[in-house]
Specification:
Layout lengths: L2 H17 L3 H13 L10 H13 L3 E8 L2 E8 L8 E7 L17 E3 L2 E3 L3 H21 L5 E6 L7 H9 L5 E6 L7 E5 L1 E10 L14 H19 L11 E9 L9 E10 L5 H19 L8 E10 L2 E2 L5 H13 L5 E4 L5 H8 L3 E3 L15 E3 H19 L5
Parallel strand pairs: 3-6, 3-7, 7-15, 8-14
Antiparallel strand pairs: 1-2, 2-6, 4-5, 5-16, 8-13, 9-11, 9-12, 10-11
Helix pairs in contact: 1-4, 2-3, 2-4, 4-10, 6-7, 8-10
Length: 410
C-alpha cells in the first residue's frame, strides 16, 4: 500500500468515525448527567457515577468504580485494545458540580434547551464535556476497536480534589499517549495551568477580660500581622512572574476567630488560597508562610506576644502543569480541533484543574480542551453550553484518539 493509499484509508476512517457522532446523542446524555446532580460540598456524586457507568457499559467499556469515601467513588472506564490494556489516550473529568445557588430562571437540575444552548447546572462544567467524551469513545470503538482509550472521572474536584489524590496514590501508572481534560475552554487548547493550594493557619493566644487586654494575647490582632505578611509576599510574587502563566498569588478567603466583644480572642483561623506555578511545592510554601507569620507577630512586640503561636496545614493541593506548545500532542489536538470546525488556538489558564495530577503521575503531555466558557458560564446561574460546541468537542476527541493511536491518521 502506498503512502497515498494509507492516507486515503485513514481519511475515510476519520470520516466514518465523525459521521457516527450525532448532536442528539451528546445532548441526551448531558441532560441525564445534569439531572443526576452532584453538588459539592455535599458528597452527592453517586448518581452521576451510576449514570456514566451505565452509558459506558452500553458502548462496551470496562468500568471500575473505586470508592474514595462512602458514597463517593471515582470511575475508571477503558475501551478498546486488549482486555488488560490500560493505555491509549486518557480523558479526564469530574462528576461533581458547584452548588446551584440562586438567580436561576428555571430548575437548575432540570435541563432545558434554549436558543441553541443546553441550560442546567453542570452544562459547561462539566457534564457537557463528559457526554462529548463518551459519545466520541463510542464512535471510535465502533470503527476501530483495536484503539485503547481510558476515561477517568473523579469525585470532589470542586472542593478538595480528594478523588484525584486518591487516584494518583492508588492507581499504577498507565502507558498513556496523552491526556485531555474536558473542562470548558471554548475549545481553545490550554497547554499550561497554574496550580492551587489551600492552606489553613491557626493562631493561638490567651483570653482575658476586654477591660484588661494586656492580661491576654489577642489572636485576632496577630492574625492582622499575618495578613500583612501575606500581602508583602504577594507583592514580592508580582515581581517573579512565569513567562507563560504569569505570577503566583495569594487570596485570604475567610477569617474565623473570637468569642465576643468583651473577651480577648484566644484563637483565630485564616483560610488562604495560594495559586502556584508548576515547580512550587505546597509544603515549602507552608513552611515559608509560617516563618513569615511568626516573624510578623514577634515584630509587633505587643503585650503577650510570647503567648502567641501559629501553626498551619495544607488542606488541598492541585498541582499546575506545562506542556510545551511545540509538543507533538498539542499539534495533534490543534489539527483535530481545526478539522472539527474550531480554530485550534492555544493558550494558558489562570484557573486550576486536575490535569496537573495526571501530568505528574503519568509523565504524559496534558491539555485542557472542552466545550463551554469557564469565565462566563461555569459556576453561574443559568449555566449553559452551546449545543453546536458539544458536537465540535466530541468530533475533536474522536479525531485526537484516532491520530494519537496512529500517527499516519490525518
Amino acid at each position: 500500500m502506498t503512502q497515498t493509499d494509507v492516507f486515503t484509508t485513514a481519511m475515510q476512517q476519520s470520516e466514518r468515525v465523525t459521521g457516527r457522532i450525532d448532536e442528539e446523542s451528546i445532548v441526551a446524555l448531558a441532560e441525564e448527567l445534569i439531572r443526576a446532580g452532584g453538588e459539592n460540598p455535599g458528597g452527592t456524586e453517586e448518581a452521576t457515577v451510576v449514570a456514566l457507568s451505565g452509558a459506558l457499559a452500553a458502548i462496551g467499556a470496562r468500568t471500575e468504580v473505586d470508592e474514595v469515601a462512602p458514597g463517593r467513588s471515582n470511575l475508571i472506564a477503558r475501551i478498546g485494545g486488549d482486555a488488560t490494556d490500560a493505555g491509549g489516550l486518557l480523558f479526564l473529568g469530574h462528576s461533581d458540580v458547584v452548588p446551584a445557588g440562586s438567580g436561576w430562571t428555571g430548575e437548575p437540575f432540570e435541563p432545558r434547551r434554549w436558543g441553541g444552548r443546553l441550560v442546567g447546572r453542570g452544562a459547561a462544567d462539566m457534564k457537557g464535556g463528559l457526554a462529548a467524551v463518551v459519545v466520541a469513545m463510542a464512535a471510535v470503538h465502533a470503527e476501530a476497536p483495536e484503539i485503547p482509550m481510558t476515561l477517568l472521572v473523579t469525585v470532589d474536584e470542586e472542593c478538595d480534589a480528594s478523588g484525584a489524590q486518591h487516584y494518583v496514590a492508588t492507581e499504577p501508572a498507565g502507558e498513556y499517549t496523552g491526556c485531555v481534560v474536558a473542562e470548558p475552554t471554548g475549545m481553545h487548547i490550554i497547554t499550561a495551568c497554574r496550580g492551587a493550594t489551600n492552606l489553613r493557619l491557626e493562631i493561638t493566644g490567651a483570653s482575658a477580660h476586654a477591660g484588661n487586654p494586656d492580661d491576654g494575647a489577642s489572636a485576632i490582632l496577630a492574625a492582622g500581622d499575618v495578613i500583612r505578611a501575606v500581602e508583602e509576599d504577594d507583592a514580592k510574587l508580582r515581581t517573579q512572574p512565569d513567562p507563560d502563566l504569569g505570577r503566583a498569588c495569594w487570596n485570604i478567603g475567610a477569617v474565623h476567630g473570637g468569642h465576643g466583644t468583651s473577651i480577648v480572642a484566644d484563637h483565630c483561623e485564616l483560610d488562604l488560597d495560594r495559586r502556584t506555578l508548576p515547580e512550587e511545592e505546597a509544603t515549602t510554601i507552608l513552611s515559608e508562610l509560617l516563618a513569615d507569620a511568626s516573624r510578623a507577630i514577634r515584630g509587633r512586640n505587643r503585650a503577650g506576644t510570647d503567648r502567641l503561636s501559629v501553626t498551619g496545614s495544607v488542606e488541598m493541593i492541585m498541582p499546575g502543569f506545562k506542556t510545551e506548545p511545540t509538543d507533538g500532542f498539542v499539534t495533534v489536538c490543534q489539527d483535530a480541533v481545526q478539522r472539527a470546525g474550531g480554530t485550534g488556538e492555544t493558550g494558558v489558564w489562570t484557573a486550576a484543574c486536575e490535569g496537573g495530577f495526571i501530568s505528574q503521575a503519568h509523565s504524559v503531555p496534558t491539555v485542557v480542551l472542552g466545550p463551554g466558557d469557564v469565565n462566563r458560564q461555569a459556576h453561574q446561574p443559568d449555566e449553559s453550553v452551546e449545543i453546536s460546541e458539544l458536537l465540535t468537542a466530541s468530533r475533536t476527541y474522536a479525531l485526537i484518539a484516532l491520530q494519537r493511536s496512529n500517527p499516519t491518521t490525518p
